[in-house]
From TrEMBL:
<dbReference type="InterPro" id="IPR007533">
    <property type="entry name" value="Cyt_c_oxidase_assmbl_CtaG"/>
</dbReference>
<keyword id="KW-1133">Transmembrane helix</keyword>
<dbReference type="InterPro" id="IPR023471">
    <property type="entry name" value="CtaG/Cox11_dom_sf"/>
</dbReference>
<dbReference type="GO" id="GO:0008535">
    <property type="term" value="P:respiratory chain complex IV assembly"/>
</dbReference>
<keyword id="KW-1003">Cell membrane</keyword>
<keyword id="KW-0186">Copper</keyword>
<keyword id="KW-0812">Transmembrane</keyword>
<comment type="function">
    <text>Exerts its effect at some terminal stage of cytochrome c oxidase synthesis, probably by being involved in the insertion of the copper B into subunit I.</text>
</comment>
<dbReference type="GO" id="GO:0005886">
    <property type="term" value="C:plasma membrane"/>
</dbReference>
<comment type="similarity">
    <text>Belongs to the COX11/CtaG family.</text>
</comment>
<dbReference type="Pfam" id="PF04442">
    <property type="entry name" value="CtaG_Cox11"/>
</dbReference>
<feature type="topological domain" description="Cytoplasmic">
    <location>
        <begin position="1"/>
        <end position="9"/>
    </location>
</feature>
<keyword id="KW-0997">Cell inner membrane</keyword>
<keyword id="KW-0735">Signal-anchor</keyword>
<feature type="topological domain" description="Periplasmic">
    <location>
        <begin position="31"/>
        <end position="195"/>
    </location>
</feature>
<feature type="transmembrane region" description="Helical">
    <location>
        <begin position="12"/>
        <end position="31"/>
    </location>
</feature>
<protein>
    <recommendedName>
        <fullName>Cytochrome c oxidase assembly protein CtaG</fullName>
    </recommendedName>
</protein>
Length: 195
């Protein structure tokens, strides 16, 4: 009887361990999966990354507004150099943002972006953007950062997005702790060297 009970308890323990491992793996995979899902579907205003310009340009126009924000822990000024522009669907356009490091030390920032209304995110395609990489600014340094984009003409055929006439592109810059990154890189290199 005791042996049967021990086997039953062992099975329960192994099942609980399996559940914990599965939940941990699911939690770990949730963020990259959600990011991939948003990128593929344009969900939550996530824009697309284009490898080339649009192959067609329509006469239909759309107004694109530009917004800029900085998190409090990053001592930068950040603003769009134009507040809005009107572009034809499929037309490649270029806009600029300006960033200034107001601190007395070199700071690294990374921007996140969003498009609203969110239905337009799938059709807003970036060819080149400062948001693809981290930006490092020396004390007092000022830079102009380009953004090359187009609004996909297929937007007109979409039941929901086809009625949109105004899009807002919003960026938020976050401080990147380069010391933490350097320590993580050094730790990874040391771990690789030991293996």
């Amino acid at each position: 009887m005791s042996n049967t009970r021990d086997n039953a308890n062992a099975r329960v323990v192994w099942r609980l361990i399996a559940v914990v491992v599965f939940m941990g793996a699911a939690a770990w995979a949730a963020v990259p999966f959600y990011r991939w899902f948003c990128q593929v579907t344009g969900f939550a205003g996530t824009t697309q990354i284009a490898t080339h310009e649009s192959d067609r340009v329509l006469d239909q126009t759309i107004r694109v507004r530009f917004d800029a924000n900085v998190m409090p822990d990053l001592d930068w000024s950040f603003r769009p150099m134009q507040t809005e522009m009107t572009v034809r669907l499929g037309e490649t356009a270029m806009a600029y943002y300006e960033a200034v490091n107001n601190s007395d030390q070199t700071l690294v920032g990374r921007s996140t972006y969003n498009v609203s209304p969110s239905d337009a995110g799938y059709f807003f395609e970036k060819i080149d953007c400062f948001c693809f990489t981290e930006q490092e600014l020396a004390p007092g340094e000022r830079i102009e950062m380009p953004l090359t984009f187009f609004v996909n003409p297929d937007m007109l055929d979409d039941r929901d997005a086809g009625r949109i006439r105004d899009i807002t592109l919003s960026y938020t810059f976050f401080h990147m702790d380069t010391q933490k990154s350097a320590r993580a890189d050094t730790g990874a290199s040391a771990a690789t060297a030991l293996n």
